[in-house]
């Protein structure tokens, strides 16, 4: 315990964060961390004394405490949390500590340590501990009901809390039905069925009817006959939406001919239902879908307007494209997307003079629609760049004002990248637009490209850096791929974050799935011993580039399709090729669900080529299909 007491005696006041960082301090920090790993607490203690003015010295204490979340260290953890209440690691430490306390059922300490959490299991344990110690949930019933009113099963910690609610008759029939509704909306049919056991027989029969509609909406809606009640109308709306996902025309017909006349839908719910029908109908290319929107949709509804545009583009109905755009508010009409398609429509309907005027205006911008417009004019791309260099005086002023940036810098330089990002992200909301640009310039100066590229594209050097140059050039030559495509994939997929990992299992700079990486490793004779090696830039880029070559071969060298497939997969792209065959490539991109990603990556390619002193157009390769 000596080390713990000494640590807190040292820091009787905050260190001077504005002082110049001594490189020696970084070495001392790493030495302290090694001493901790080696369990050399005497050396660890000495290093803490030597580092008392270092801005991130408290992280050493965090490392120590997070591996000592035992009863013996309860008071030390409390002292740390009280001393650093705003530090990002305090939130993490408290969360991990609460998990440990719950695991060992230390109810008294849990209640002392608890602060409001997002984690439902910990929220439930807080109520459970209160219930066990105080024998009631006085003043906490609303929190308990909030946890209960979730459309999914909760952690077992919630069971005694929910039992208390039932036993004290705090769960009314209305609340039970409310949770049943939530469960149905989440598709949790088994939970809904379980909840229904406590409902009256008539209600259970109604739920069974609802679940049948979920399974067979067309069949069950056709024979649906039930008195006009709020719940009946809710079940009808649920079923109609479910049906419209596959067949919006049939859903609309059921509503108009079967339900509209016999059930008193409110004006608000009717409008929402028609809106939903229209969205799905336009996706299914039903011309009549736009008629369902009469008098219910504002002219600035971006989602509907884009769906209407897509339907008109699908049919290459250029007169309708013009009509849609002119129906928008003046503000919306000026957006690049709408200006481009207006110019395309004017061009196709013979008004080349007006089309050219719009294209020239758009061509001033170095983005997707600007590049498209430039190509229509047969001109060279305009690459806009604003110099964001930061001088030493401005840097010092920014760091003095935002100590979190100093901590982020030190953690980044010491290889604690995840912790550095946490400090960085905590500061960003407090920065002005000008300070955000300066922060991007700082990150670029430090070589922290996954932060600089996220914040800005004003300065092409900052927003489109060229790290990993040697390996990318080497692999581009080996796989016969333009280096600009590799850079574009990395920026679009990971923003240069080496340790990036997504929810769908993609890993590293080029966001590879493990199985794809393994397959490429075998084909390329690359040793891939464990998943961690996918976070090594050289390995990830070699495998990712090989995978992109595989996609290029799959699509006969078509870069547009290969780049799209890199994000969504081969089968999906083949489906889109079949669904939107024989269309110009700019229309094809506008129609596909992943258009935002594809537009970004297409625009990145010429920018990275420009960064290397080359000229290259966006890879809008024609989609070769058999057209009737």
Structural domain tally = 5
Largest sheet: 2 strands, antiparallel
Strand order of the largest sheet: 1-2
What is the helix content?
55-70%
* Count of helical stretches: 37
Low-confidence stretches: 1-19
Spatial extent as radius of gyration: 30 Å
CATH topology of the largest domain: Lysozyme
Which structural class matches the secondary elements? mainly alpha
- Which CATH-level-2 architecture of the largest domain? Orthogonal Bundle
Give the mean pLDDT. Answer: 91
Based on Cα principal axes, name the global outline. Answer: flat
Kindly, what is the distance between the CA atoms of the first and last residues, rounded to a whole number of angstroms?
81 Å
Share in β-strands? under 5%
- What is the CATH C level class of the largest domain, in words? Mainly Alpha
**Total E-strand runs:** 2
Protein model, in words:
The chain has 628 residues and is mainly α. It folds into five domains: 112 residues; 48 residues, no CATH class; 76 residues; 72 residues, Methyltransferase, Methionine Synthase (B12-binding Domains), Chain A, domain 1; 143 residues, Orthogonal Bundle (Lysozyme). The chain is 65% helix and 1% strand. It has 37 helices and two strands. It has a two-stranded antiparallel sheet with strand order 1-2. The chain is flat and about 80 Å long.
Describe the structure concisely.
This protein has helices at 2-10, 23-37, 41-50, 57-66, 74-83, 88-103, 107-113, 120-134, 141-148, 159-167, 173-185, 189-196, 201-215, 217-222, 230-244, 248-259, 267-283, 302-314, 318-326, 330-333, 336-348, 352-362, 368-377, 392-401, 403-413, 417-427, 433-446, 449-455, 460-463, 469-478, 483-494, 514-524, 537-554, 559-568, 570-579, 585-591, 595-611, and strands spanning 506-507, 512-513. It is an all-alpha fold and 628 residues long. The model is unreliable at 1-19 (pLDDT under 50).
């Amino acid at each position: 315990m000596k080390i713990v007491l000494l640590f807190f005696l040292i820091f009787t006041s905050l260190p001077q964060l504005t002082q110049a960082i001594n490189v020696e301090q970084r070495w001392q920090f790493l030495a302290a961390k090694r001493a901790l790993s080696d369990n050399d607490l005497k050396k660890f203690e000495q290093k803490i004394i030597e580092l008392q003015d270092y801005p991130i010295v408290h992280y050493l204490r965090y490392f120590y405490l997070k591996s000592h979340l035992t009863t013996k260290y309860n008071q030390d953890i409390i002292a740390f949390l009280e001393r650093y209440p705003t530090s990002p690691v305090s939130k993490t430490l408290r969360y991990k500590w609460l998990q440990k306390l719950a695991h060992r059922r230390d109810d008294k300490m849990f209640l002392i340590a608890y602060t409001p959490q997002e984690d439902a299991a910990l929220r439930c344990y807080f109520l459970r501990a209160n219930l066990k110690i105080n024998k009631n949930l006085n003043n906490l019933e609303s929190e308990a009901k909030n946890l209960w009113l979730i459309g999914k099963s909760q952690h077992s910690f919630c069971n005694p809390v929910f039992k208390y609610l039932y036993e004290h008759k705090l769960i009314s029939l209305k609340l039970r039905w409310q949770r049943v509704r939530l469960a149905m909306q989440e598709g949790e049919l088994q939970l809904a069925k379980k909840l229904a056991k406590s409902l009256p027989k008539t209600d259970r029969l109604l739920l069974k009817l609802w679940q049948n509609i979920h399974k067979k909406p067309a069949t069950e809606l056709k024979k649906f006959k039930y008195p006009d009640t709020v719940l009946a109308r809710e079940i009808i709306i649920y079923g109609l939406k479910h049906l419209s996902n596959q067949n919006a025309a049939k859903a609309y017909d059921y509503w108009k001919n079967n339900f509209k006349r016999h059930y008193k839908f409110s004006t608000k719910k009717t409008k929402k239902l028609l809106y939903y029908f229209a969205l799905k109908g336009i996706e299914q290319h039903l011309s009549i879908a736009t008629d369902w929107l009469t008098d219910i949709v504002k002219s600035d509804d971006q989602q509907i307007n884009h769906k209407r545009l897509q339907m008109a583009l699908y049919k290459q109905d250029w007169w309708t494209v013009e009509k849609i755009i002119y129906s928008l508010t003046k503000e919306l009409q000026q957006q690049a997307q709408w200006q481009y398609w207006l110019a395309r429509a004017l061009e196709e309907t013979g008004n080349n003079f007006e089309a050219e005027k719009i294209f020239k205006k758009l061509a001033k911008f170095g983005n997707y629609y600007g590049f498209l417009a430039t190509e229509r004019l047969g001109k060279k791309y305009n690459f806009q760049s604003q110099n964001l260099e930061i001088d030493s005086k401005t840097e010092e002023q920014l760091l003095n004002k935002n100590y979190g940036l100093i901590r982020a810098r030190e953690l980044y330089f010491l290889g604690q990248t995840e912790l550095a990002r946490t400090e960085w992200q905590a500061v960003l909301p407090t920065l002005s637009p000008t300070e955000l640009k300066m922060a991007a310039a700082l990150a670029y100066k430090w070589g922290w490209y996954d932060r600089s590229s996220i914040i800005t594209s004003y300065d092409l050097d900052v927003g489109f850096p060229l790290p990993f140059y040697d390996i990318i050039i080497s692999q581009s030559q080996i796989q016969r791929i333009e280096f600009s495509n590799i850079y574009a994939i990395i920026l679009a997929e990971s923003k240069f974050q080496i340790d990036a990992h997504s929810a769908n299992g993609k890993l590293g700079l080029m966001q590879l799935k493990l199985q794809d990486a393994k397959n490429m490793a075998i084909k390329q004779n690359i040793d891939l011993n464990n998943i961690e090696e996918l976070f090594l830039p050289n390995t990830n880029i070699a495998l990712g580039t090989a995978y992109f070559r595989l996609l290029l071969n799959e699509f006969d060298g078509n870069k547009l399709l290969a780049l799209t497939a890199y994000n969504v997969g081969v089968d999906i792209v083949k489906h889109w090729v079949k669904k939107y065959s024989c269309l110009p490539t700019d229309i094809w991109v506008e129609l596909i669900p992943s258009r935002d990603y594809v537009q970004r990556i297409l625009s990145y390619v010429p920018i990275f080529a420009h960064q290397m002193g080359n000229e290259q157009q966006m890879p809008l390769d024609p989609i070769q299909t058999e057209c009737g």
